[in-house]
Design a protein that fits this description.
Blueprint (H helix, E strand, L loop, with lengths): L2 H9 L6 H8 L3 H8 L5 E2 L2 E5 L9 H17 L2 H6 L1 E5 L5 H13 L5 E4 L5 H10 L4 E5 L8 E7 L8 H12 L13 H4 L2 E4 L1 H12 L13 E5 L6 H11 L2 E4 L25 H10 L3 E5 L6 E7 L2 E4 L2 H18 L7 E6 L5 H8 L3 E5 L3 H14 L3 E6 L5 E2 L9 H17 L4 H12 L1 E10 L2 H17 L4 E2 L2 E8 L4 E4 L2 E4 L9 E5 L4 E6 L5 E10 L2 H18 L2
Parallel strand pairs: 3-4, 3-5, 4-7, 8-9, 8-10, 13-14, 13-15
Antiparallel strand pairs: 1-2, 2-6, 5-6, 10-11, 11-12, 15-16, 17-24, 18-19, 19-20, 19-22, 20-21, 22-23, 23-24
Helix pairs in contact: 4-6, 4-8, 13-14, 13-16, 13-17
Length: about 575
């Protein structure tokens, strides 16, 4: 259907939401094109996009279309699946609560049982609820760390793991078969209304108990370390504060950011990957002479960290905070005789090398997955059944980790609790977390693990991203700056080149990721973001010192900027 015809179909449809109709009426030609040139699609973390009117936007009608497709998927799995039902959670964003309860209505109209949280909750608690209630699946309404203009929709399986590609594809096929999303307007019978149950504190307490169970040294001295905490207006405010108070950590909350504000009024960004997300927390840390800053994204699956060393506060990358957690957890498991003989850690193909080096030093195997925590959750489920390997940690470079797999998604409350314990433990030894990180570099090698991105919004941006990938694939890079490319991996074509030989790349679902290995031990990867209109470039640069690695990284970043221009 032509863009203008689709626009007119929406504009004149009797079921169109009144506010969306006003928005459509005010659009110019460019805005109409962007809102209707495509359908909002599932990416690495479900369906995510800008709130607004149109098929390429998140709104009540595109959410209903997704739910109608999910309902058919559930019904195709039989009456037991419908009776087991779906748990539904949501964050603090505009329309999240409305989308969540409307999702329940759409599913209940197909006689599918639903459990909806009474108010906003973290993504990991939704994953936990799916497992605790023995549901067939789950829905989380969230745009994670994206700006305030966004919202999104994530689907979970019966293990509390986001739907992996072959399952998500079935839902997508169902969704794409729906010709008129505006015709979906559920009206429930009394029996169907009774299928919707509101949940809350009972699940909270069971989740808190599980999080508290991960402690390795619960009696560590908590009186000497101060923590500043910000939920960035999101869902971690209550759980992290509750957990820290119960354990006895000294927690100083960034009060201006503790309210569930969908406009994120008191933070420049809700994304812990961006340095400005820490601005106010850093002011608090200086004022109260705090040792550690913990910042969670709005749906509480990511944890950002800053640590004090002498009089300076250092904001860590996700690779660095992951490395500190790995060192603490693995050292304590070994010390306490709890490290499994067949231990395995999971991270992604764009996660830096330091974490794997630490794992190697403790005899822990590392398995790589594509970006998207669902792939880690899938591996956890596999080894849970065959017991070939024992899970001890999983993480991504994008500030997400999972310590204990009673949840099957990234879990910031778990990460916050464990990092706090690590900070107190090392403080007893006269060390800061910054000291621990630098000891790891000195022992295992100096790495600068960083990321740059190119923002390319709209239809033209999407075309530009495809063109960049196509060009790199057609003209394989042989050098980057002055470094020779000694091997490469193409996850889109499932090919790899090493020692001049072209081989098949196995073990991964096809994905638009290109990775280049350089002759100095560094690597660079490039991929389109699955959640934002961006092209992301990842750098793991090895140097002879921290300063040398950082300097080399700057050279590589400039080279990639020119290559992708």
């Amino acid at each position: 259907m032509e863009i203008k015809d689709n626009y007119q179909r929406w504009l004149n449809h009797p079921n169109l939401d009144a506010d969306l109709k006003k928005e459509l009426e005010a659009m110019d030609e460019k805005q109409i094109n962007d809102a209707f040139y495509t359908n909002v699609e599932f990416g690495t973390a479900g369906m995510r996009g800008v709130l607004g009117a149109g098929t390429n936007r998140i709104n009540i009608h595109t959410i209903r279309k997704a739910n109608e497709g999910f309902a058919k998927y559930i019904m195709d799995n039989g009456k037991e699946a419908c009776d087991a039902g779906v748990a539904i959670g949501y964050d603090n964003r505009h329309m999240s609560k409305e989308f969540a309860f409307d999702s329940a209505k759409v599913l209940a109209s197909h006689n599918i049982r639903c459990y909806v949280f009474e108010s906003l909750r973290p993504t990991p608690e939704l994953s936990f609820a799916v497992r605790e209630l023995k549901c067939f699946g789950g829905i989380m309404i969230t745009a994670s760390h994206n700006p305030k203009e966004y919202n999104g929709y994530k689907l979970y399986d019966d293990k509390g793991c986001q739907l992996v590609p072959h399952l998500a594809a079935k839902v997508v096929d169902n969704v794409n078969a729906i010709k008129d999303e505006l015709a979906i307007n559920p009206v429930l019978t009394p029996e169907q209304e009774s299928l919707i149950t509101v949940i809350g504190k009972d699940i909270d307490e069971k989740y808190y108990a599980k999080v508290l169970s991960i402690q390795l040294n619960p009696n560590v001295d908590k009186t000497k370390v101060k923590f500043v905490f910000s939920p960035e207006h999101g869902t971690s405010a209550i759980p992290v504060k509750t957990l820290f108070e119960r354990v006895g950590y000294q927690l100083i909350c960034v009060e201006e950011q503790m309210t569930p504000d969908p406009d994120f009024s008191n933070t420049p960004t809700p994304n812990p990957e961006e340095r400005k997300a820490y601005d106010l927390a850093l002011e608090y840390a200086k004022k109260y002479d705090a040792n550690v800053i913990l910042v969670c994204d709005p749906d509480a699956d990511r944890m950002g960290v800053a640590v004090k060393d002498k009089d300076e506060l250092h904001v860590l990358t996700g690779n660095q905070s992951g490395a500190v957690l790995i060192e603490y957890i693995f050292s304590q498991l070994k010390k306490q005789g709890k490290m499994p003989a067949n231990a395995v850690m999971f991270n992604t193909v764009v996660t830096g090398d330091l974490g794997e080096k630490i794992a190697d030093s403790y005899g822990v195997e590392t398995e790589k997955t594509l970006t998207g925590f669902k792939f880690i959750g899938e591996k956890v489920a596999k080894y849970e059944v065959n017991h070939e390997k024992a899970y001890v940690f999983g993480y991504e470079e994008s500030y997400g980790s999972l310590i204990s797999p009673f949840v099957r998604d990234k879990d910031a409350p778990q990460a916050c609790l464990m990092l706090a314990e690590a900070a107190c433990y090392y403080n007893e030894q006269g060390k800061t977390l910054w000291d621990v990180l630098n000891e790891l570099y000195a022992k295992l090698g100096y790495y600068d693990e960083s990321q740059t991105s190119i923002s390319l919004a709209g239809e033209e941006g999407a075309k530009k991203i495809k063109a960049i990938i196509a060009k790199l694939r057609a003209d394989r890079l042989t050098t980057i700056a002055d470094a020779k490319v000694v091997a490469w991996e193409d996850y889109g074509t499932c090919e790899k080149m090493k020692d001049g030989k072209l081989e098949e790349l196995t073990g991964f679902t096809k994905s638009e990721v290109l990775k280049y290995y350089l002759d100095d031990g560094s690597w660079i990867a490039i991929r389109p973001s699955g959640t934002e209109p961006k092209m992301k470039i990842y750098y793991c640069v090895k140097g002879t010192s921290t300063a040398d690695a950082k300097a080399k990284a700057a050279v590589y970043q400039q080279a990639m900027k020119e290559i992708t221009a």
